Amino acid sequence: MLQPDSALVLFSGGQDSTTCLAWALQRYARVETIGFDYGQRHAIELEVRPIVLAEMRALSPDWDARLGEDHMIDLSLISSVSDTALTSNVEIQMQANGLPNTFVPGRNLLFMQVAAMVAYRRGLNVLVGGMCETDFSGYPDCRDDTMKALQVALNLGMATRLKVETPLMWIDKKQTWELAHEAGGEKLVDLVRFATHTCYLGERGERHEWGYGCGTCPACELRARGYREYAASRQAA
């Protein structure tokens, strides 16, 4: 049976999912997390996940009390059926269809389906994901219409009343940094900066003002630009 006021957060260990986790911990009495090992090139994110979760608990006794079990799911089949810059050591570039080759077709659809299965078993009634339509890439499986259609399909297929929440859907990266600040102040912002991982190349050798990463891949550029805009607005305030 689904329990009211409970959520399962799709948590990769990156900026967006960490911000979504803080958002959920502000709103739901019981919060669990789920992550996926899909043979990603930036598998370093799997190593930072438990560190970020531990630091989130340390930020607030209330969050520590609300934050429950973490679920790690093996979805390595994704890398065996896809050929992308996130699952293979190839150069990041645009494709003929107008999407970057960092797009992993069907990835978020599968993530949400598996998350719904876990939520069903665990009695959780909300799925929280960091999908964002304002992101630079325009990934079709990050769009609002996709998430709404998926919510309908999941509930029809499982006879449930699951709700899909995407708190980042209509905001940019500057606003994502602002959302983190609203949820946990400078301590959470610093946690996001230096504990989370976003870089597509899995680079954590160099520390920048916005965190660790290669500094040149699309994910790093987006994160860095958003942080600089956020920091500038804080200084001007």
Automatic annotation (TrEMBL):
This protein's record includes keyword Ligase: yes
Protein's organism: Massilia horti
Residues annotated for Zn(2+) binding in this entry: 199, 214, 217, 220
Protein known as: 7-cyano-7-deazaguanine synthase
Reactions catalysed: 7-carboxy-7-carbaguanine + NH4(+) + 2 ATP = 7-cyano-7-carbaguanine + 2 AMP + 2 diphosphate + 2 H(+)
Function according to Swiss-Prot or TrEMBL: Catalyzes the ATP-dependent conversion of 7-carboxy-7-deazaguanine (CDG) to 7-cyano-7-deazaguanine (preQ(0)).
The keyword Zinc is assigned to this record: yes
Pathway membership, UniProt: Purine metabolism; 7-cyano-7-deazaguanine biosynthesis
Record: residues binding ATP: 11-21
Protein family: Belongs to the QueC family.
GO terms, biological process: tRNA queuosine(34) biosynthetic process
Gene3D superfamilies on file: HUPs
Binding note for cofactor: Binds 1 zinc ion per subunit.
Catalytic activity, EC: 6.3.4.20
Pfam families xrefs: QueC
Cofactors required: Zn(2+)
One Gene Ontology molecular-function label: ATP binding
UniProt keyword list: ATP-binding, Ligase, Metal-binding, Nucleotide-binding, Queuosine biosynthesis, Zinc
